[in-house]
Automatic annotation (TrEMBL):
Heterotrimer composed of PaoA, PaoB and PaoC. One of its GO terms (molecular function) is carboxylate reductase activity. Transmembrane segments: none annotated. It is found in: Periplasm. It comes from Rhizobium aethiopicum. The keyword DNA-binding does not apply. Keywords: 2Fe-2S, Iron, Iron-sulfur, Metal-binding, Oxidoreductase, Periplasm, Signal. Its EC number is 1.2.99.6. This is Aldehyde oxidoreductase iron-sulfur-binding subunit PaoA. InterPro entries: 2Fe-2S-bd, 2Fe-2S-bd_dom_sf, 2Fe-2S_ferredoxin-like_sf, 2Fe-2S_ferredoxin-type, 2Fe2S_fd_BS, Aldehyde_Oxdr_Iron-Sulfur, Beta-grasp_dom_sf, TAT_signal. Signal peptide: none annotated. It holds the Pfam family Fer2_2. Oxidizes aldehydes to the corresponding carboxylic acids with a preference for aromatic aldehydes. It might play a role in the detoxification of aldehydes to avoid cell damage.
Amino acid sequence: MPNHSQLELSRRDLLISSAATVVVTGTARGSAAAQPSGDTMKHSTSVSLAVNGERHEIEVDNRTTLLDALREHLHLTGTKKGCDHGQCGACTVLVEGRRINSCLTLAVMHDGDEITTIEGLGKPGDLHPMQAAFVKHDGFQCGYCTPGQICSSVAVLEEIKANIPSHVTGDLTAQAQLTAAEIRERMSGNICRCGAYSNILDAISEVAGIKA
């Protein structure tokens, strides 16, 4: 029968052996995890954006939003970053003629696309009719949401012309009508914290040729 000292030695050997096994196994796993699997991952991509009629070749982090590419890479700061969650519409731009929230899409998804920002609609002395109408009807106060409001307004009229229905379109088999209700519904994704909604409606209605 083993004596007490032999039992103590066995326990000590067991603990040492177990600890060594854990260390070796952990090191092996760590080494395996540190090894790259296949090709090295690329974290940036070269994209070609046609913005306001001008072609730009830029290298962007794959996680860069279209909004940040426009503001930080191309320095087109007319497009505003509001909520950064697609809820306020301040970042609205036109991509291939359709409005999108540029904070919710990645720049790498728009390689080759035609993009129009507020700077591309018109300039001082040569304003787009919608820009001129916003000025005439005081469709802004602080002005922060205005670029997105104007880009969205231009797209709204094109959507109605293209017979794209909204939630308030009554007859889906007929041509969508230019009404105040249609404009209000379609512009509901663009928030004006100053509350210039009635003036915005007046501006859009004038360009549309209807009574607000």
